[in-house]
Amino acid sequence: MSDLYGETHRAFQDRHDTRRLADRLEALAHSEFDERDRSFIEEASFFFLSTVDERGRPTVSYKGGPPGFVRIVAPSELVFPVYDGNGMFLSVGNIASTGHVGLLFISFESPPRRLRVQGTAHVMPNEGPGHVPGALYLVRVRASEIFVNCGRYIHRLEQRRLSPHVPDASGQQPFPAWKGYD
Q1: Residue 86's closest CA among 174, 173, 172, 179?
Q2: Are 71 and 93 in contact (CB under 8 A)?
Q3: Per-residue DSSP letter, 24
Q4: Which of 93, 102, 120, 127 lies 20 to 30 angstroms, CA to CA, from 51?
Q5: Does position 182 have pLDDT exceeding 80, yes or no?
Q6: Pick from 79, 70, 76, 52: which is nearest to 143 by CA?
Q7: DSSP category for residue 55
Q8: Buried (b) or exposed (e) across 57-86, using 16+ Cβ within 10 A?
């Protein structure tokens, strides 16, 4: 019995004769961050966050910050800040209502790397010892599956600079002009 694959996944694997490969990859999945995962995640300046609303509709968002903005805080848990965005609060609202998340960390540099983290999350106030300047909230994720993903089709890109809207160490950030439009 597989924890990662359902009947439809298995049907495609069988159709393309990849079940043995899929089984080997599933055997590498884990629920606690190892040192390689930790350094990759804590050095990242962005990731993609997938959430699901109460009607089962998925959405995905880009989340960016300075390197180190995502922190591993326990063997199976990470925390990331929620910065001021477009005001829709889709990700935070979805996390508050269903808690289901998928995070995809990607390195576009050589060698390319992708790491998936699937689990449950909850929204926390941005206060106390884990306070992050400039963040509205913090999200704590408990990983149920952590696994590498094929980097074969990752384009080689170079990060030139961080967004000027990432809050600085004191939490200050420029006001985006588009928010002043009616």
Answers
A1: 179
A2: no
A3: H
A4: 127
A5: no
A6: 76
A7: T
A8: eeeebebebeeebbbbeeebbbbbbbbeee
Average pLDDT over residues 31-54: 96
Which structure tokens are listed for 8? Answer: 């439809």
Say how far apart CA 118 and CA 114 lie, in whole Å.
13
User: Up-side HSE of residue 48: CA atoms within 13 Å toward CB?
Assistant: 10
For the chain, give the longest Cα–Cα distance: 56
Domain boundaries, the chain: 1-30, 33-151
Looking at residues 91-95, what average pLDDT do you find?
A: 97
CATH code assigned to 33-151: 2.30.110.10
Reported pTM? 0.87
Q: Which of 54-68, 87-101, 114-128, 152-166 has the lowest mean pLDDT?
A: 152-166
Q: How many helices (H) and strands (E) does the chain have?
A: 4, 7
